[in-house]
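Category: protein sequence paired with discrete backbone structure
Discipline: computational structural biology
Format: plain text, a pair of labelled lines
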Amino acid sequence: MDDLKTDRVGIIDRLSAMAAWPLRVLFKGLDYPLSAIQRLVGIQRMPWIFLLPNLAFFGIFVVIPLFINFAFSLTGGTELYLSDRVYTGTEQYGFLLECETFGDPITCREDRFWKGLYNTAIFIVFQVTFLVLFSLITALILNQKIRARGFFRAVFFFPVLLSPVVVALIWKWVLLRDGILNAFLVSIGMDKILFFVSPEWSMFWAVFVSIWAHMGFYTLILLAGLQAIQPDLYEAAEMDGTSKERVFWRITLPLLWPNLLVVIVLALIKGVQIFDEVFVLTGGGPGTATQFIVQYIYNTGFTEQVQNFGLASAASVVLGVILFILTMTQLAATRARDNG
């Protein structure tokens, strides 16, 4: 019996060695060039060598396109290649920013841009506010010792795994005139509601679907922050007879604030960049009721009969500046709060 066990262990060891052999060969082969590079640049600079592929990827697909986009914003015409386009300076920016009253898109020369900006502002006010609120409430609940806690965590995170287009198609089938929701309303004696005909309903469902699709990701970030809080703090507060409301405001929220800040900034950036799920869900309609700034850029540069690459590039630069200002303002306010 002992001999049989010994033979079995020996076979397993040989199979493990055979399986690990290609890896040993690979690592041995990588050791020679890496050792040579280390001798050439020194051990202190080796981290930059490992970062180089990511930096190259970031430069090729992020930094260089940013400069190309800015260059396009200073040109006019319908030509695709930058060398064939006419330099117009800041003419595209002047066209975008020419308004009698900035609060009224109708008075602007390019009213579609300002309508998209106005719709985006309304969207992020409601979407970011309720997204952060619902994510925080959900994280607080899932952090408790409830039955089937792992199951509910998976359920809330599942929509994040779906493609935005898939999410939009699912909800579009639900909300169509003859969709599931209207079938339910008819079954209980109510009339059908044309959700995609009313501007108010279209904006409501754009916000709702976006929250439903992304809430799980932000809930996960906040849940990680809650689990990093030391249980001893809650035990001490309980021994002192501190109320749950005071524990939340005095212990949980201050210690969770770094995670909450990350959620707010990421939600704000994602909200300003909203495009795919709303584009599939409503198409920007009815009219321009749910046409956001990114869709305006997409339509101007790619879908219109006369593709205005310069104007679309200028609009994207303006959007980037607005987003940068919002993010820096938020970070500055947070730093002032922490220092105060």
Notes: The first helix runs from residue 2 to 41. The domain at 110-307 is CATH 1.10.3720.10 (MetI-like fold). The first strand starts at residue 75 and ends at 76. The mean pLDDT is 86.
